[in-house]
C-alpha cells in the first residue's frame, strides 16, 4: 500500500515537468513530422496531403545535398580545429607557458567566444570585403595578391570563409574547457612518465589525451550537433548565396519557409535535422557510458 | 540514457509516426474568397487598431509613430498598437501572423505577388468602393500607384510611396570622361563605360551580396526586351513558363553590363558598400531606388562636391528591344486592410488620415520619399532631383514591378540564385532560365 502511495506521489511530482516537456518539446516534434507530409504555406487555405513527396523532392534537390554537405564539412573542420587543435593549444598553454602569461593568453583566446555571432559575422564581412577587406589587403602586402578573392561572393570560397570565422570564434572556448580538464589530471602521472624518460609529446599522448577523453567526447558531441544547427553566421554573412552554395540545412529550412513559402518542405528539412542530431546524441550518450575516466 | 529508456523512446517515436500516417489535413485560413467588411464609418470613432509595418529603420520609424499619435490625439477614443519591424523580419512576421489568423487590422505589403498572396487567401479587404480610381479618396492618388495593388479590377491596397529605379550618375565623372549627354541606348551605355574606365572611374558601383540588386536590372531589361502580354502571362504563377528566348537576351545584356561596367566581386559586396563608392566620387554611376536619393544630398551625408553634381537617368533600352521601352522598374509600397478585421471602417479612416495632403507632404519633406498623393511633392518640400523624378515617373507607361516580388516566390528564388551564379561565372544565361522554367512549373503546381 505504501509503495503504491509512493508511486502516485512520484507521479504527481513529475507530472508538471512531463507535461511541459510534452507540450513544448515532443508535441512540436510530432507536429513538425506531420506537417512534412503536407504541401502548405502560411497563406494557403487548405494544406494538401502529399505523402512522401517532400522527402522525394529533398532527395532530388541538389541544394538540399549541398546544404547537407556544407553541414558535414562544418562538422569535420570543427572537429579538427575545435577539438583537435584546441586540445593541443590547451596542452601547450598548461605545459610550456609561464604561469603569468597563461592567464592572459587564456583570456585572449576566450574573448572571441563572448562576441555575439551576429557581430562577429558583420565584422568578418568587412574583413572579407573584396574592395577594402583586411584579408585581401594582407595577402597583397605579403606578395600573395593573386590569392585574393571575393571570399563571400564566390561559390568556391563562401562556405569555407564562414567555417573559418566560426573556428576563430569557438576555438578559445573549447580550449579553455580542455584546460580545465587537464588541470584535473593529477600531476603525479606526468612526473611518473617523466621519470620513465618520456618527453612532452609522449606524455601528451599517453597521459593527457586518455585522461581528458570525457571532455573530448562531450566536445565532440557539442561540436557535431552545433555544426548541424548552425544558422546565424551563414544568414548574416551570405544568406546561403551565392547561387545557394553556402546554404546549410537550417538556412535552407528558413529560405523554404519564409522566402519560398513552402512550409511543408521546410518541415521536411527540420525532420532530417532532427533525425541527424538525434542519432548523434544517442551514439554520443552510448559512447560516453563506456568511456568514463576513473582514478 | 539506459537501454530500456532508449527502447521506450524509440517505441514511442514509432507509435507517433504510425499515428501520423492516419492524420488528415491541418488548419489554415479558411476561405480563399475575400469577405466584404463594412468600410464606411458610422457613429463615433472608437476602438483599437493594430498596425504592422516594415519601417523599423530609425530614419523612418518616427514618422509613422508621429502620424499614429496625431490620429489618436484627434480621436481620443481610438488607440493604436503600432508595431514596426525591419524589412526581412517583416516577411517572417507577417507569414506567422497569417498562418495563426492573427493578422493586424492594417499591414504593409509590397506590390505584385506578395500582395496577391493575401488576396488569394482572402486576407485582404476589397477596398474598391472607397479607394477605386473613381472614388473621392481614390482620385487623390496617381492612378498607376493604385493599379499596382489591383487584381481582376478590384483594388486592395493604399499606396504609401512611389519608388522607381534609376541610374544615378556623377556629372563631374561624365564630364571628365568626355560624355556630354547620358547614353540613349544600352549599347551607348556600354561604350560610355569604357570611357569612364579610361578616366579612372568604376563605371557602375555594383554590390549584389543578397541578390536583389541584380534582380532590379533584370526587372527593367525583361520589361524592355519581352512584350508586355508575354510578361504578364509568365509573371502569373498559374500560366508562367518563361520559355520565351528574349528572357535569355535580357540576361545576356545584364551579363555584358556587369562584365563591362561594374566592379569585380559584386556578389561579395553589399549594395550600400558599393554605394559609398558613388557618394565618395570613386564610381560614376549606381542603379538606385528613388527612395535612396537622399544619400546623394548633403542632408543625407554626401560631400558637397557630390551633392552639387549628380543627376539620374533610366537604364537605357537596347536599340533592338521588343518590349515596352517606356516602362520603369519600381512600384509603390502599400498598406492593406485585413479582410477579417472588425475595425475595417476605422482602419480605412486612419488610412485616409495617413494619406491626406498635409501628411503626404510631411512624408516627402521628412523622409525624402515621393508620395503617390497628387500635389504633395513641391519645390518647397523636395530637392530638385526628387521633383524631376516625379515628372519622369509620370511619363512612364507603366511600373515594371520588382521581379522578386511580382513573381511567385519559387520563381523569384530561382532568379535570385541563378543570376548570382551567372555573375560568378558558374552559370550561363540559358542555365539560369532552365532553373526559372523548372521553378515556374513548380509554382504552377503550388497555386493549382
TrEMBL record, chain B:
Pfam annotation, one family: SBP_bac_1
Signal peptide: 1-21
UniProt superkingdom: Bacteria
SUPFAM superfamilies the UniProt entry points to: Periplasmic binding protein-like II
Assigned keywords, A-Z: Signal, Transport
InterPro entries named in the record: Bact_solute-bd_prot1, SBP
Classification via PANTHER family: ARABINOSE-BINDING PROTEIN-RELATED, OSMOPROTECTIVE COMPOUNDS-BINDING PROTEIN GGTB
Similarity comment text for this entry: Belongs to the bacterial solute-binding protein 1 family.
The protein, known as: Extracellular solute-binding protein
Species assigned in the record: Planosporangium thailandense
